[in-house]
Amino acid sequence: MRVPHPHYDANVRRPAIDGAPPVSPNAPRAPEVQKIHSNFLETLIFNGLSSPLALVLVVIQGRYLHTSGRGSFVLVILSVTLLTRLLGQLGYAVTNRTHEQGADLKSLIQSSFAIAVVLGLTGTALVVAWGALVGDASTTVVVVAALALIPNVVWQSVCGIVLGLGQVRLWNIIQTLPSVLIVIGFAVFVIGLDMGVEGAVLAWTVTHLLTAVFALVATRKTWRPLPLDRFLDLFSRQLAWLALTMGAVQVVNLLSYRIELIVLERSKGLAEVGIYSIAVQTGEMVWLLAGALTTAVTASALADDEKGAVAIISRTAGKALLYTTVIGVAMGAFVPYAFGPVLGSSFEAATTPLRLLLPGQVVYAPVTILVVYLSVRRGRPGLSLAVSVAGLVVTFVSSLVLIPSYGASGAAAASAIGYGAGALLAWGLFTKLARTPEKAPAPAAAPAVAKIGA
User: Fold this and answer.
1) Which residues contact 137 (CB under 8 A, 6 or more apart)?
2) What is the pLDDT of residues 202-211, one digit of tens each?
3) Greatest alpha-carbon span in the chain
């Protein structure tokens, strides 16, 4: 999910539209439809840039890190990624809070930065300590990976704010930048300097640092000047708790996506993890259209009235399921034939895991859209957390049963079963909550609707 990141919000209420009412009272007005289509197409264009880069990265990892090296790289960055998911929802917490009476966007953004630094430093120490205790990688590699945490949290928080404000183009630029930078980093450190896993981790950390710098510069008018003399006083427990609650959904989601990796590594070794991770990364590309649809409708769904929001979310989720099904069928039929020629013969074994994964990934695609409604529109991140926990538990139990006998294929089947369980629960909760009256949000102060820009 969003992700999903799957948590989104908007604090911009669009002006009333003049003219005749729409044919369906639940449908967005024509200008809103045009904006949604424009956002969708723009996001697809950016995805059209990032997706080939992701494929290039997969090829580089397969050719230069090989199966065990790729498996080691995935596991080294996993702890940092988990904490990033936990803390990276600060931006969406900010846009949620701008609905409150007297809310000020600049103060909320500054507070989110203080939370990112304080909790990020704590998380960095935890990553290093955990790596020293149980990791197979060197201390240097673990430290380099841990240094990516705070920059990662910062740029993802900025993304949450700009998307909530409907600044889709800036969101797309920031989201695409890491895909560009990581390929350059791998070309320099892994291919050029032949640094192996150490170079891959260094490239990953530098990528997040540069992306954070860009995001801060691009949005500097919304947070400057930053009161460094009372920086720690900006820490808000209420905002931190909301962000952590949203982030908990992301952490459980990631664990649900990756818990089978841990079981697989313990049962079958790093080489099997490397093969399976290729199937996972390839299969997750079926979510590109669903992600683009989520980005396109987020601001509109959160700014519209309740009936309009339900209509937008349900209609978009249905489209995501249909489109993803078509893509999934095509991917399962043709993509596996490229594994051997492109990545090397050892990766041909990813064929069966990919085909087992795809059905679950297809049915899970609309969940990122449903969570827009559950977590932020209705302010019920606990419901999204329930979806994530259900998927995690089902995936873990299935992994314990299937992986010892079937290896990577068992991991794929377990993951697909977990995806299906989470998707069913998400649709059920969305249907139930959509029938429950929504409490009207308190109006936001004028500064909260300022446009982000340099």
Assistant:
1) 72, 75, 76, 131, 197
2) 999 999 999 9
3) 66
